[in-house]
Amino acid sequence: MTWTITAEHPASPTAAALWRAYYTEVSDRYYLLHENRRTDPAELEREVAKETRSDLTPPTGQLLVARYAGEPAGTAGIRLRPDGSAELTRVYVREELRGKGGAPLLVAAAESAARALGATRLVLETRKDLTEALTLYARLGYKEIAPYSDDIYADHTLGKPL
Question: Where does the record place the N-acetyltransferase domain (predicted)?
Answer without folding.
Answer: 17-162
